[in-house]
Specification:
The protein has about 120 residues and is α/β, with parallel strands linked by helices. Helix content is about 15%, strand content about 35%. The strands form two sheets. A four-stranded mixed beta sheet has the order 1-4-3-2, covered by helices on one side.
């Protein structure tokens, strides 16, 4: 019997999981501030729709500080509308501290309530 090797080709990312301290607080942040939509949820978990992908928020078994910043570098988000100035102003008006990246004046970095680093890629032009 001949054994064939399957060639695996990823075609997209279904979801990314981040551990959070408080699922309700994180849900409000991502839905209320960033406009994601709830795909489904159950005790301690919520899957949020973000375009064709999903962001899954799992309530951590240990304090979020133990995993934040170590489980991934950052999540980069595309936005439907808004210039760099509009997106930055909107985040700052919501009390979010915004930073940039050296050499890229249109880069917006900020953190969610659990310290996960997020990036928004505003529309250019």
């Amino acid at each position: 019997m001949e054994h064939t090797t399957l060639t695996i080709k990823a075609t997209g990312i279904d979801h990314v999981v981040v551990h959070v301290k408080d699922v309700s607080r994180a849900r409000q942040f991502y839905v209320g501030l960033l406009g994601m939509e709830v795909a489904h949820e159950n005790a301690g978990r919520v899957f949020l729709r973000c375009g064709q992908q999903q962001l899954a928020l799992f309530e951590g078994r240990q304090p979020a500080e133990a995993t934040a910043g170590r489980d991934l570098n950052h999540i980069a988000l595309q936005v439907e509308s808004g210039s760099y100035e509009e997106v930055k102003s909107s985040l700052e008006a919501s009390g979010i501290a915004v930073t940039g990246r050296r050499g890229d004046p249109h880069c917006i970095y900020f953190q969610d309530p659990d310290g996960h680093q997020l990036q928004i890629l505003p529309l250019r032009g």
